[in-house]
Amino acid sequence: MDILAQEPFIRVGSFVLIFAAMAFAERRSPRRNLSVSKKSRWFANLAITLINALILRVLMPVVPVGMALICSERGWGLLNAYPVPSWASLVLGVIFLDFVIYLQHVLFHNIPLFWYIHRMHHTDLDVDVTTGFRFHPLEILLSLGIKLVAVAAFGPPAAAVLLFEVLLNGTSMFNHGNLLLPEKLDRLLRLLVVTPDMHRVHHSVIIRERNSNYGFNLSWWDRLLRTYQSQPAKGHEGMTIGLARFRKPEELTLGKLLKMPFNGRY
Question: pLDDT tens digits, residue range 197-216?
């Protein structure tokens, strides 16, 4: 159970390091000029992050790494029923969980009930590193439930689940970053992973652009399932970020964000 005991330290440590690196890189090389107060946005986004962490700690006794250990002990899941080499189970586990999160993201955009929960993420009027953890507590709980089911069904090793969780948190901060990458580097990176320019398209106010580029880590799924869009129609400097119905900063305070799933406005 050592990996379970170390899991919080590994996740928190990687979060702090990646967040600090991205915040520094954004300041040195921003992709876009910010349109609203960074102070108010960061307060709301960081407060939501803290609330989510506290809710998970209090309400969820089992985390995906713990579920993986239980599955290993009891022989649950495909990889435990049909053993493969440890390196292969590690790679397959990470790829499978990444695909699950891609599918979850597609569902959260296309099922109205889930969209009402997920749309809070899209109300950010700018996109930067803090947008990467701007998710409503209900979405965090739903996502955790989906991951627990996926781990139980597939049976990846605990190391694969922990690696996936660290990658998911890290790549979410990276691909939401307001970071200018050289064009050639961006083209090269997005052959494998989702880059900031690739994911920013997904935060466009234009619905057809919003319903594209669902990936968080691996960029393959959007290409394979034809949800990929290379660039926004108006360019990254000219595109409008957010949702058309939520454009006023006073509508996007912490309290109103938390109430948003219960607001009937589409």
Answer: 999 999 999 999 999 999 99
Q: Which amino acid is at 148?
A: L
Say how many domains are in the chain.
Answer: 1
Output the six-digit token pair for 201: 């398209």
- Cβ distance 176 to 129 under 8 Å? yes
Phi/psi for 35 (5° steps) reads -100, -20
120-150 burial, b for 16+ CB within 10 Å, e for fewer?
A: bbbbbbbbbbbbbbbbbbbbbbbbbebbbeb
Sequence-separated (6 or more) residues with CB below 8 Å from residue 181: 189, 195, 196, 197
Chain centroid to Cα 158, Å, comes to: 20
Dihedral sign for Cα 232, 169, 249, 138, please: positive
Are 210 and 203 in contact by the 8 Å Cβ rule? The answer is yes
Give the CA distances from residue 129 to residues 30, 123, 174, 175, in Å, rounded to whole numbers and listed in that order.
11, 15, 7, 8
Residues 105-162 have pLDDT tens digits of 999 999 999 999 999 999 999 999 999 999 999 999 999 999 999 999 999 999 999 9
Q: Round to whole Å and give the CA distance between 146 and 149.
A: 5
